[in-house]
Amino acid sequence: MKVTAFIGSARKKHTYLAAEKFLQNLQSLGDIEYEIVVLSDYNLKICKGCMLCLNKGEELCPLRDGRDILMEKMMHSDGVLFATPNYSFQVSGLMKVFLDRFGFVFHRPQYFGKEFTSIVAQRIYGGKDIVKYLDFVGSGLGFNVVKGLVIKTREPLTEKARIKTDAAIEKQSRKFHAKLRKQEYPNPSLFKLMLYRMSRTSMKMMLDENYRDYTYFTEKGWFHADYYYPVKLNLFKKTLGRLFDFTARKLAAQN
């Protein structure tokens, strides 16, 4: 299996080293190859907000940079790690530019059956909120999410702190490896089911063949599916799914 780490720091220090240790631990558990992608090594331009990727298709984006190379690396991975320092109580600017470059995937998710987790390196405070954000991002892209990890990197780093950090990273590696081995398509939560059914039903009523979201959902068969991928919903979720569809149709009719 292939795991790729995307590093949102230009320095090969705490964030990079934590990601490297995470991947080495994974490899020691067996049957894993890995790649470390340092985002600063790639040409990534700032999204202009022109909406062409959303409305007409990502291939029409006017920016010519490393986006597609990075997306291919993600697609050909069984698992993905996003690692970022805590800069100004958020992901690094480099990581945010990276995320913005494939914002259209939140409309047309594609990484189902793949695992995702994150590591946030910080000195003092705010990392848990960043992990929560990255967990949400991973889920929105289609990944199965293993809750991310915050590590403390206040310098000078004591031996006790280093041992504690190494143990936390090892534990995260084991959790991630266990999920990788399952390679599952989990039953959606009620929240995820609601997002899917209401967005696709609204899309079906309000868009047409002139919009890439509409043609993408048509190609995937998502307008007539219970969920993004084959899943057996129980009677309760099937009933709620129909209710979400009904609610979306009513809201769309009012617009």
Average pLDDT metric: 95
Count the strands?
6
Q: Strand share of the residues?
A: 5-15%
The portion of residues assigned to helices is 40-55%
Anisotropy-based shape: globular
Explain what the structure shows.
This protein has helices spanning 14-28, 52-55, 67-75, 93-100, 127-140, 159-182, 190-206, 212-220, 235-254; strands at residues 2-7, 33-38, 79-85, 115-122, 144-145, 149-152. The model has no long low-confidence stretch (mean pLDDT 95). Helix content is 47%, strand content 13%. Helix 1 (14-28) crosses helix 6 and helix 7 runs parallel beside helix 9 (235-254). The chain starts with a strand and ends with a helix. The chain contains nine helices and six strands; from the N terminus they run E-H-E-H-H-E-H-E-H-E-E-H-H-H-H.
Task: Explain the layout of strands and helices.
Elements: E1 2-7, H1 14-28, E2 33-38, H2 52-55, H3 67-75, E3 79-85, H4 93-100, E4 115-122, H5 127-140, E5 144-145, E6 149-152, H6 159-182, H7 190-206, H8 212-220, H9 235-254
Parallel strand pairs: 1-2, 1-3, 3-4, 4-5, 4-6
